[in-house]
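Annex B, item 7. Sequence and structure tokens for protein A, then protein B.
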Amino acid sequence: MAKKESAGILLYRLLHTDLEVFLVHPGGPFWKNKDLGSWTIPKGEFLAPEEPLAAAIREFTEETGFTPAAPFHLLTPIRQKSGKRVHAWAAAGDIVPALVKSNTFSMRWPPRSGRKISFPEVDKGDWFPIAEARNKILAAQIPLLDELASRFKN
């Protein structure tokens, strides 16, 4: 069986001369009380024939309610702990975290209760300076931050 693939957008902005990135926190009961090492770029799975960039834009829009704008700069794909390959693009933008509106997913909760409850895929999003983002983001995604930051070094 082929490993699953995801695609996402690493949105960034320059605030004065400081580089900041927009990350999202996963929704649902598993992530509820987790912070450090749990944030992520907005991303999601895709299947052929969908192109990875099209999937990245779709996922960003579904998880935030905002559509990122070109130009998109391809970053080196990473592999997460699960083996899933993540294709990512950096894009400049500026969105208001308080206005983030995510799609939802359903799961049985509490476990073995027989009840299905809907949760947002993303429960919040926020801007972080690169140094803080390195602590917030899933460890496997840190290389995406590093590659983006290296493009802004003098």
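Protein B:
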Amino acid sequence: MSVIGIHEVVRRIKEDNLITGLAGRDLSNPEGTGIDLRLGAVHKMTEGGAYIEADGPAGLGKRSGVKTEELYRLKEGEVQDELIIEPGEYYLVQTAETVHTPLDLMPMAYPRSSLFRAGLLLLATKTDPGYEGQLTFGLTNLSSFPVKLQLGARICNIVFHKIEGDAIGYRGQHQGGRVSHGEETQV
């Protein structure tokens, strides 16, 4: 698997809507091999009790997520809200941008170093081919000090890996950028 170059990423953004909702800076002045994504929404967990069952003889396991409440959402063209993340706090955050992942690419999101230099840990994973929606990450403050993070700040860099061979498109419950869910059967 190889990483596609920035000019190919920009071409696919412009011609194929690979990523929508980008800030102008990311297309006019990209660097490296990836595109920066911004903090678009912040969700707080309001109720726990999550569980994930193993698949058993009866079929696919059940799962239940936490309950969340949206605290902030990016307001394009306005002064943005700021989130103060106290030591030990944990949030689910979403990108402002939406990815439209074709079957020949697999995006990986990497935290920007400005986050960990401030004591913030962004928990990210790969994105499957066929996924469309905002990306959701975990965000926690590992430092001993509060950190202020403004909506619209660049939080991660997305890099696209070229898939050699076949891929099966994403068909999970988080398609479209869903943050939390009640009880359901895994797919």
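Comment on protein B: The longest helix spans residues 6-16.
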